[in-house]
Every structure is written in C-alpha cells, then in structure tokens.
Write a structure and sequence with these properties.
13% strand; two-stranded antiparallel ribbon; alpha+beta; 3 helices; binds zinc ion
C-alpha cells in the first residue's frame, strides 16, 4: 500500500529511467501555480481572485500588473508630466512605459 503521505492529490507518481537502465517510480509534489506579481518591484499582487473580470483584479489602472505602491508612483509621475512641471525624459526609465500609458 502506498504510504499515507504519498496519497495526496498534490503528489503524483512519475517513472524515471536511471543511469543503470532500469526505470523507477517516484512520488513528486506538484508545483504550485505562480501567483501574480508586480511588474516593477516583483511583490505579490493582492486582490487577484476568481469569477467575473471585475472581481478577479483590482479595478484601477494597471490593476493586474502593478502593486498599489508602484501604481501610485506612476500616477504621481504622470500627473507631474501632465502639469508640464516635468519632462517625460526625466521620468525614471522603468516607470516611463506606464507613465506614457497613463498620459494616453
Ligand atoms: Zn510594485
């Protein structure tokens, strides 16, 4: 009988050929699906769920791509450019793509 620890649905049985030529069976834990992460800082995005599109992701600009703090940073930079206080070339290069997207 398979050991209790190997009877979970998170475990699967795989056959691997070893260098001696025989094949052996192993129990391998399935990999977890990677969670969505921020495109700028890499932190895990919160508020990602299931169901309708509006409930699957935060309903704001770059909701499923940027975390709240990076989104705020981009918003501030976009406003500074819009108010002509700052040139788009002075915006940090990693933020530039998103700032341009916000400007339209
Ligand atoms: Zn971020």
């Amino acid at each position: 009988m398979t050991k209790r620890k190997d009877r979970s649905t998170a475990i699967r049985k795989v056959k691997r050929r070893v260098p001696s030529g025989e094949s052996r069976e192993y129990f391998i834990r399935r990999k977890k699906k990677p969670s969505a992460s921020c495109a700028l800082c890499g932190s895990a995005l919160r508020g990602i769920g299931t169901g309708a599109k509006s409930s699957r992701t935060p309903n704001r600009r770059y909701g499923g791509n940027l975390c709240h703090s990076c989104g705020a940073k981009v918003l501030v930079e976009a406003q500074r450019v819009r108010e002509k206080g700052k040139s788009i070339d002075d915006v940090e290069i990693v933020l530039r793509k998103y700032v341009q997207g916000m400007l339209g």
